[in-house]
């Protein structure tokens, strides 16, 4: 038995180290309900699962919403609204009662991983910031009584207005007028290993200062770099610059261990006449590039490779919100469950396959593929698809039709990439066969993803796996390596148990 115990201890230690390295960034969605005619929560839950979204932020603890996500595997971040900060901060019994009545009856069937206490309190006209930490402390105490304080983290969300300066990023600093509130808050987060939650909107920076901020820089599309004069770090997008400003502000106060989490970010698809950048194309571009940026574990210039979890705002347009037109048009889905624009939450597929992004691949063995340039116009891509899939190109484009394995992500770059490559491979894999009026580019990284198989040189057949029906297609891998974590954990623990039994038998 002693030998078996030692074996399990050693293997378990190695396993824990392995699992720790498998944790990665994730992309979630904000599910606000300040709107008329929204679908019932059970349909929303199914919609979320259909989009392969594993993480959802809600702004209260609505019972019907909590029930709808039971046994789905979706992890919820739930909120305690600003209106409830006073009673939660005054009496521990209020926090205890809320947890007992609003959370415990649905947990753990409904996976809850974060509780946000208050939202952007520094933006509130009422002086409520002093209530946040006492309320957080009482919520944490309630969780400790239930034995859940290590499974559910407590924090609070903030706007970028919590900083007095955000550029250059290295000069990032918290506003001194919030010092009385921030110091105990940061101490709470550090002690309990909770993230600093921030809501970031490059859209507003561009809208309010279009002469100072480039639209491409805000959309992750910039080909130029902004240099931080203090550090020499190069920034190609505003999102990274804002994240690093937060990290530098935390470091300035000696809170180096606190992680940053983005609890809201996005781009509106419609705005008032002066909000010319609020378009579906810009919204799709920002969110697509953001997802790819996060899933690729790029990190930021100051924190390369650093895990960064984000929540895109938002799932639905919310027509009851006040303010400019854009405030009511941040959703990716209409109330009738049709898309405002297409968005691939897995971060997979040939969505951004420029020649530079796919210049080298150690496994290509000289094979090349032809894909669509992400810089091509939508009109040029559509015309090229029509030509390739028509009688002129004679490409079998069945695989990019609805319910087929190459339909998702549903956008022209992805569909054109599949059509371009099929034509290219069927016509001798010559440079001329990948021109498409300048919209095609050659790469030597295989664009194949999930069940969408791209032809290789000399393979002129339409692969069987690209002609399967929707019911035979397996679900795409999750965008988060947390699923990998669970899979490895279950399999490895089973292996350890079997080896333990074998060791006992041999003893």
Automatic annotation (TrEMBL):
GO biological process: carbohydrate metabolic process; defense response
Membrane topology note: Lipid-anchor; GPI-anchor
Keywords of the record: Disulfide bond, Glycoprotein, Glycosidase, GPI-anchor, Hydrolase, Lipoprotein, Membrane, Plant defense, Signal
Domain X8 residues, every copy: 368-454
InterPro entries associated with the record: GH, Glyco_hydro_17, Glyco_hydro_17_plant, X8
SUPFAM superfamilies per the UniProt record, alphabetical: (Trans)glycosidases
EC number(s) stated in the UniProt entry for this protein: 3.2.1.39
Taxonomy, superkingdom: Eukaryota
First-tier enzyme category under EC: hydrolase
Protein's cellular compartments: Cell membrane
Broad class of where this protein is predominantly found: membrane
Claim: Disulfide bond is one of the keywords in the record: yes
A cellular-component GO term for this protein: side of membrane
Catalytic activity: Hydrolysis of (1->3)-beta-D-glucosidic linkages in (1->3)-beta-D-glucans
Signal peptide coordinates: 1-24
Presence of the UniProt keyword Signal in the record: yes
GO MF annotation: an example: glucan endo-1,3-beta-D-glucosidase activity
Entry's family note: Belongs to the glycosyl hydrolase 17 family.
Protein name per Swiss-Prot or TrEMBL: glucan endo-1,3-beta-D-glucosidase
Organism (species): Medicago truncatula
Source lineage: Eukaryota, Viridiplantae, Streptophyta, Embryophyta, Tracheophyta
């Amino acid at each position: 038995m002693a030998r078996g115990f030692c074996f399990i201890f050693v293997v378990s230690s190695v396993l824990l180290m392995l699992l720790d390295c498998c944790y990665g960034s994730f992309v979630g969605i904000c599910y606000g309900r300040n709107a008329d005619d929204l679908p019932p929560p059970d349909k929303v839950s199914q919609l979320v699962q259909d989009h392969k979204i594993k993480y959802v932020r809600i702004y209260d603890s609505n019972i019907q919403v909590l029930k709808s996500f039971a046994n789905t595997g979706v992890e919820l971040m739930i909120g305690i609204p600003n209106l409830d900060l006073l009673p939660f901060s005054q009496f521990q019994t209020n926090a205890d009662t809320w947890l007992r009545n609003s959370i415990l009856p649905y947990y753990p069937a409904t996976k809850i991983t974060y509780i946000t206490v208050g939202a952007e309190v520094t933006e509130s006209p009422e002086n409520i910031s002093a209530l946040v930490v006492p309320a957080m402390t009482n919520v944490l105490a309630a969780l400790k009584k239930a034995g859940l304080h290590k499974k559910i983290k407590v924090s609070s969300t903030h706007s970028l207005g919590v900083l007095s300066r955000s550029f250059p990023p290295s000069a990032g600093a918290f506003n001194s007028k919030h010092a009385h509130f921030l110091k105990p808050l940061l101490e709470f987060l550090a002690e309990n290993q909770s993230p600093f939650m921030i809501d970031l909107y490059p859209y507003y920076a561009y809208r309010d200062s279009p002469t100072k901020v480039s639209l491409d820089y805000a959309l992750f599309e910039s080909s130029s770099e902004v240099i931080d004069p203090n550090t020499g770090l190069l920034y190609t997008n505003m999102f990274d610059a804002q994240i690093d400003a937060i990290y530098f502000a935390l470091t300035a106060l000696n809170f180096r261990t606190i992680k940053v989490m983005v609890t809201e970010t996005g781009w509106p698809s419609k705005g008032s006449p002066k909000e010319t950048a609020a378009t579906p194309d810009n919204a799709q571009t920002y969110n697509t590039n953001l997802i790819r940026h996060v899933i690729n574990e790029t990190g930021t210039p100051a924190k390369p490779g650093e895990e960064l979890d984000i929540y895109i705002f938002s799932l639905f347009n919310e027509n009851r919100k006040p303010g400019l037109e854009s405030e009511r048009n941040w959703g990716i889905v209409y109330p009738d469950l049709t898309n405002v624009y297409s968005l691939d939450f897995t971060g997979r597929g040939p969505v951004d396959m420029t020649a530079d992004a796919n210049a080298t691949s150690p496994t290509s063995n000289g094979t090349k593929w032809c894909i669509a340039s992400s810089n091509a116009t939508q009109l040029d891509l559509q015309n090229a698809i029509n030509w390739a899939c028509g009688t002129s190109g004679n490409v079998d484009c069945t695989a990019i039709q609805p319910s087929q394995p190459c339909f998702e992500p549903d956008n022209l770059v992805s569909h054109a990439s599949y059509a371009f490559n099929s034509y290219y491979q069927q016509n001798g894999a010559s440079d001329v066969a990948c021109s498409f009026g300048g919209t095609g580019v050659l790469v030597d990284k295989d664009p194949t993803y999930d069940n969408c198989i791209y032809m290789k040189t000399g393979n002129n057949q339409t692969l069987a796996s690209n002609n399967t029906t929707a019911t035979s297609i397996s679900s795409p891998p999750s965008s988060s390596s947390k699923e990998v974590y669970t899979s490895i954990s279950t399999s490895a623990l089973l292996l350890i148990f079997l080896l333990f039994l074998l060791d006992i038998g041999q003893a």
